[in-house]
Amino acid sequence: MADLRIDIISDLVCPWCYLGYSRLKQAIDQLGEDYKIDIRWQPFELHPDIPLSGADRDGYLSEKFGSQEKLNEVNHALQHVGKEAGIEFNFSEKDRVPNTKLTHQFMLAASKASLATPFALALFYAYFTNGEDIGTLAVLKKTALETGLQVEDIEYATSDKAKRLTEKKLQHLRQMDIQSVPTYVINDKYMLHGAHDPESFLKVLHDIAAKEIQ
Question: I want to staple 82 with a disulfide (CB 3.0 to 4.6 A). Which of 61, 76, 87, 127 is the partner?
Fold first, then answer.
């Protein structure tokens, strides 16, 4: 039996984090019963400069990418690779880029309730497929309840304690000098960056497991 703890450092508005988890899950499904996998989600702010009210997606990202045309190219490329992974990326001029601090506080509450992965996937789907603003309290509450979180979990997510702990986690990861997501830290020793294909993930997990049981 090989035990692998995988810390997924991500932001819920990162399309490659969504793709990365989908591909990682395909690899994990091929590992078989001899592997015990413990996935934990860690926070990252892809757009730390975003105001709490969020920003218009087209305007904000077209400036980051250099032009609306370049952003359109990125959108089309994401839609293509998304189809291969069974993910439907929908983009419209009404989309917002949220500030995700509160989103990460809800993820912290979901982790305490052992619902982090279902909640993360629900948020990815809400944002990228349904075009919902996952930085708003209303959307976060609705998604949390639909995922199985309880009222007390939501109260914790909006508490000062959750806010402090989330900021502490963000600060710790900044000190690790992580510049991009998704980033995966396996068994606190091995770091992998990017949304690799399932075969690459599978090889990495096999190789690390072999080292760990020596």
Answer: 87
Give the burial class of 116: count Cβ atoms within 10 A of its Cβ; 0-12 exposed, 13-18 middle, 19 or more buried.
buried
Q: How far apart are the first and last CA of the chain?
A: 12
Give the model's confidence band at 212: pLDDT under 50 very low, under 70 low, under 90 confident, else very high. Answer: confident
Neighbouring residues of 95: CB distance < 8 A, sequence distance ≥ 6: 56, 57, 58, 131
pLDDT in tens, 80-105: 999 999 999 999 989 999 999 999 99
Q: Which of 93, 99, 71, 84 is nearest to 11 (CA)?
A: 99
Show the tokens assigned to 127.
């944002």
Rounded CA-CA distance 140/133 in Å is 9
Q: pTM value?
A: 0.96
pLDDT for residue 213 is more than 80: no
Q: Residues near 186 by Cβ (< 8 Å), separated by ≥ 6?
A: 4, 5, 6, 7, 192, 204, 205, 208
